[in-house]
Automatic annotation (TrEMBL):
Quaternary structure and interacting proteins, as annotated: Heterodimer of an alpha and a beta chain.
Keyword Thylakoid: no
NCBIfam families xref list: PRK00285.1
Keywords assigned: DNA recombination, DNA-binding, Transcription, Transcription regulation, Translation regulation
Name of the coding gene: ihfA
Keyword Zinc-finger: no
Family per similarity comment: Belongs to the bacterial histone-like protein family.
Primary role: This protein is one of the two subunits of integration host factor, a specific DNA-binding protein that functions in genetic recombination as well as in transcriptional and translational control.
SUPFAM superfamilies: IHF-like DNA-binding proteins
Pfam families named in the record: Bac_DNA_binding
Gene3D superfamilies: IHF-like DNA-binding proteins (4.10.520.10)
Protein's name in the database: Integration host factor subunit alpha
Amino acid sequence: MAGKTVTRADLSEAVYQRVGLSRTESAALVETVLSEICGCLASGETVKLSSFGSFVVRGKGKRVGRNPKTGVEVAIEPRRVMVFKPSNVLKARINGGQAHDEDDEEA
């Protein structure tokens, strides 16, 4: 199920072909958007893209882990991790269906 990996260059080319900006302007636009998303996440903000999903930064506390080879316990320091939660629209699109509103499911 290994598919093609989409790169920044691929995104820039798609912007170039669909929006009509020059290749240089398209690349700059893609870089600006990605840079803004990275900056927001680095400062701890949530990035929510409607009909796509949310990028959330969560904190993980200090805990004790174990080396699976030796069994020796190791302290794991607290850290921040980024989690992506896809929207229902994206989930439906991936699975080839239509997105349902939560209100429709109750009826």
